[in-house]
Specification:
By secondary structure, this protein is α+β, with helices and mostly antiparallel strands. It is built from 1 helix and 5 strands, in the order αβββββ. Strand 4 and strand 5 form a beta hairpin. The radius of gyration is 25 Å and the shape is rod-shaped.
């Protein structure tokens, strides 16, 4: 049978464990998952072909159709502004 201090130590450890679990659950629910094409806004990439105004860019390891109103040459660094309806990225030269 545990002594008085043993019960206090078990209760304190249990309280700490429950508090830590509650904190991690709260933190995981606070952040939205960054998945899908919509998560590409703000990502950086490289123009694979000339984009004048349309072409292809490599972003996050994949090649995407892109529109660059300002124009970009192959090899230029680009920044994704948004994803348009048919999964075409609107990009600007960095």
């Amino acid at each position: 049978m545990p002594t008085g201090w043993g019960i206090v130590a078990i209760a304190a450890g249990l309280t700490v464990e429950i508090g830590e679990a509650a904190f991690w659950v709260w933190l995981s629910k606070k952040r939205k998952p960054a998945i899908g094409a919509e998560a590409l806004a703000g990502a950086e990439g490289i123009a694979v072909t000339d984009c004048r105004p349309s072409g292809r860019v490599r972003v996050a390891g994949e090649v995407w159709r892109a529109t660059c109103p300002g124009g970009a040459d192959a090899g230029d660094e680009v920044l994704v502004e948004r994803v348009e309806g048919d999964l075409t990225l609107l990009v600007s030269r960095k």
